[in-house]
């Protein structure tokens, strides 16, 4: 059975690129436009990994990480931050909130898939 990944990014083109790369590697993909949309999709269904942008409207990625960690069903779900942010302070905040990896945009799909595969096998 394939693993499910939730992709959270306010950019439709980024969601599309990430979705194509993940589906190509055999993953199921759910997509959300921001943190609030992502939380609505975490409705009890099995999500093995979350890939999230940092800077988004309504709820940013670091806040999302903190909110996901409060949900018993998703507390241990690994989260990769995929972002244009390269500030060490943001990285520290994300790690403190519980993010497991940090991939900087523009990214190579292979680089992102390597991070995904380290956290969950396909």
Automatic annotation (TrEMBL):
SMART domains: REC (SM00448). Gene3D superfamilies: 3.40.50.2300. Residues 4-120 form the Response regulatory domain. PROSITE patterns: RESPONSE_REGULATORY (PS50110). The modification 4-aspartylphosphate is found at residue 53. The keyword Phosphoprotein applies. Keywords: Phosphoprotein. InterPro entries: Bact_response_regulator (IPR050595), CheY-like_superfamily (IPR011006), Sig_transdc_resp-reg_receiver (IPR001789). This is Response regulator.
